[in-house]
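[RESIDUES AND BACKBONE]
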Amino acid sequence: MPANADLPLLLLAAAAEVTQAVHAGVTAAGFTDVRSTHGFAFVRMAPDGATVGEIAEHLGVTKQAASQLVDELVTKGYADRNPHPRDARARLITLTDRGWACTRAADAALAEFTQTWSDTLGAATLAQVGAVLSQVVAPGRVRPSW
């Protein structure tokens, strides 16, 4: 068995901890009606909005599934449908003030999570972990794994 056989499981566990920490922070801030999937959609809508098709592509789901998610976010007051500035057939989905407030709560939870790891590992070790991971993990969109 390879020396690092448990590495994939540790990485998956770390990702799950990040997701749980963000969800806990958002919930503690009063946003009790959001799911982690909503946050992944918020990332695509910020800062300038996105079409349902762009959200679908970002999440790796069908346009129908993304449309249902957008309907839910609009109903809950996290997003608005707006005329698209360059395509009369499309709608631009943007975050509302409530959506931005939820996003700020998620950012605060991420900062707290990072600080906890820094307190545990030390700032230099955490920086080294980040540097090493950046050599093998391509930065870019993060989406839920269904």
